[in-house]
Amino acid sequence: MYNYLLIRYGEIGLKGKNRSYFEKSLVKNMQSALKDLEIGKIKSTQGRMYIPLSGSSDELTRVLDRVTRVFGIETVSPAVKVESDLEVIKKTALQVFKNHMDSISPQNQVSFKVDCRRADKLFSKNSMEMNQILGAHILDHVPGLKVDVKQPQILLQVEIREDGTYIFTEKIPGHGGLPIGTTGKGVLMLSGGIDSPVAGWLAMKRGIQVVGLHFHSYPFTSQRALKKVEDISQVLSRYGTGPTGGFKLITNHFTDIQKAIQNYCSESMWVTVMRRFMFYIANRMAQKEQAMTVVTGENVGQVASQTLESMHAVSQDVVNLPILRPLAGLDKKEIMSKAETIGTYDISIRPYEDCCTLFLPKNPKTRPSLEQTKREISKLNFEELVEESLEKTEIKYFEPYQDITEEELTFDV
Ligand SMILES: Nc1ncnc2c1ncn2[C@@H]1O[C@H](COP(=O)(O)OP(=O)(O)OP(=O)(O)O)[C@@H](O)[C@H]1O
């Protein structure tokens, strides 16, 4: 029955002179998310956007599933748009209301409220009069109701605008943030763990177009470990509908670097030296990608190695771009709950090894100094090892909706 999806955006609306740039980006990102669904032109007017719908519930399920993942959106409402004629509005408001009642199958008396907004001042009734007319009409036709203006179970909203009247009962939350691509590009150091996918998601939420970079130590780490990172990339691709759409994953073959570290460096410094290589390569990749930042899933104090000394030793002088650590202020519980919401948690907890866990020394240095780290690195042919690993780099693109199954759709309408 719904013929439009109303889109509300938050922070973009505060952007002053740059507002239209952010609005256009949001429209483009929504178009990109919906590109294979034969949706009509998205309209943008008076601080709102409208996606035309065909009326089929299957289409609405898909559109909701995709659009609520597009960053920049605060809330969305499936709505019925009709001509601004009193009798037509009454009839449709009742239908929309009954439709909502059917979806909640109430046991007891249901409370409701009508909230009408008249933006079109040429319409003959004002908002208060419309609230009364529509409230009375619904009470007359649906048994077992009561009006509650403070905490109604059902809020029927009616917006009388110049181009027609929109009627709806639901406000479904999006993730907020800014449209991807509006703040630049970043390279995300993506492991198979719980944290880095969440860090990448948070960077995407702030409008950064993220490219994943994974270090893989085949045959020490298995193909199944790599598959885990690919599956995470697939999930992230569903939020990544920026200017180019989808998600790009760069895989760096790290085996020879790890072997060299094991052979020549002090055992307690293995992890620090390995991380310093990773940051150096991430910086190189960021330059190649014309990215402006390196994003990591590091936390402060979550594990023994995540000390400020260690962060300094692994990245100082090898990264010349800002490093974003979006998880720095979050507790593990908060990160896990975010990973569940995003849909990466179940993949991240699959029990496959990762190159860091495999090469874990018995007594890793938790507060390494920069000098000590540089001394260890000087035992290796740093540049040559990096160049060799870069030659074996692979790139894979993940399209957001190519393999999505019915079960994976989050909306059921
Ligand atoms: N194999 C890898 N490939 C790419 N980045 C990695 C890899 N291993 C670690 N990193 C980066 O280093 C960060 C810190 O890793 P560490 O193992 O200390 O923490 P973690 O809390 O286990 O992180 P995660 O849960 O993301 O694996 C990761 O969040 C990620 O950004």
Instruction: State the shape.
Output: elongated
Strand content: 15-25%
Discrete helix count:
14
Percent range of helical residues: 25-40%
Distance between the termini: 11 Å
For the sheet with most strands, the description reads: 9 strands, mixed
List all distinct small molecules, including ions and cofactors, that are bound in this structure. adenosine-5'-triphosphate
Number of strands: 15
The name of the CATH architecture of the largest domain is: 3-Layer(aba) Sandwich
* Helix-strand string: EHEEHEHEHEEEEEHEHEHHEHEHHHHHE
Structural class: alpha/beta
Using the coordinates shown, work out and report the CATH topology of the largest domain: Rossmann fold
CATH homolog superfamily of the largest domain: HUPs
Oligomer: single chain
Q: Which stretches are poorly predicted, pLDDT < 50 over at least 5 residues?
A: none
For the residues shown, what is the average pLDDT?
Answer: 91
The number of distinct structural domains comes to 2
Would you state the CATH class of the largest domain? Answer: Alpha Beta
Radius of gyration (CA) equals 26 Å
Pathway: Cofactor biosynthesis; thiamine diphosphate biosynthesis
GO biological process, one term: thiamine diphosphate biosynthetic process
InterPro entries: Rossmann-like_a/b/a_fold (IPR014729), ThiI_AANH (IPR020536), ThiI_fer (IPR054173), ThiI_N (IPR049961), THUMP_dom (IPR004114), THUMP_ThiI (IPR049962), tRNA_STrfase (IPR003720), tRNA_sulfurtransferase_ThiI (IPR050102)
Organism: Natranaerobius thermophilus (strain ATCC BAA-1301 / DSM 18059 / JW/NM-WN-LF)
